[in-house]
Sequence to fold (319 residues):
Amino acid sequence: MGGIAGPALAAAVSDSGALGTVALYKSNPEQSAALVVDTAARTRHTFAVNVIPEVAGRLLTDQVGALLANADRPLLLNSYGLLPEPEAARVLAAGHRLLIQVGTAADASVAAGLGAHGVVLQGVEAGGHHLGTLGIRELLAQYGQEPAAFVAGAITTGTDLLGALRAGASGALCGTAFVVTAESAAHPSYKAALLQAGPEDTVVTDRFSIGWPGRAHRVLRSPVTDAPQPLPATLIAWTSVMGERRPVPRGSAAAPTEEAEGHVEQMARYAGLGCAALRTVQPAAAYVAGFRAEFTAALAALRGDGTAAAVLVPTGRSR
Fold:
């Protein structure tokens, strides 16, 4: 959600009682520092900073440094994919939390060895780039160790979360649902398309690989995904990144932010299978409140006694 999960959205989610995340994506050192400082100024609560080691490349060390140098409180580093050991050690030594997203049980074990406080098992139900080829339930069945396992993929309602907890998860990361919140920096037409979409309107493809090769990704269907052969990588749009205007070729991994101009419908509109539950744009706080109410009601119905004290999962652990 680089460019979409900015300081405004991260702060709004954290203020609502969940954990907001600001995405650094390909930000340079100055941009990364500005994103951390801006988010910290908007909320008094803990928030997460997301990095993508395989995309950031040599920028990664500076991005982690921006977190360490500008954090005014203990934060959480949310790494998409395994983090190099030296960077993990820097984060932990500075007293911050570490969450690592993976797509296989084997990588979850490596993440545990890096000292991660939690791992995120990302299933193919998720929107965006995929770290593996299995669904959430299969990953949970293969994962039976510490640290705590969260899941990502089609968790859009409180009822979805309850199902994940009962399957053995400790919590969830939600992405697609927050694209359509008021504080999201997604392009209005991207939000509108998500609000009209169902699971059948998404597809896993490799058509948006410019700038991020080698990863399949789930997006909304479009002329780009449905063409029998890849379409020419000609210029289709312009966008702005931290005030810098940039061209967008067809097939770019860049998501359409509110600054995008041109054929936005041909850009990478990432979307998970849970999009059918999204039908209105609302503030992040309202979405989180509704999510929490759905979870409480679903848990009370499951227990059958009107209370929501605990969830018993197959492992026997209480959540």
In short: The chain has a mean pLDDT of 94. The longest helix spans residues 284-303. The radius of gyration is 19 Å.
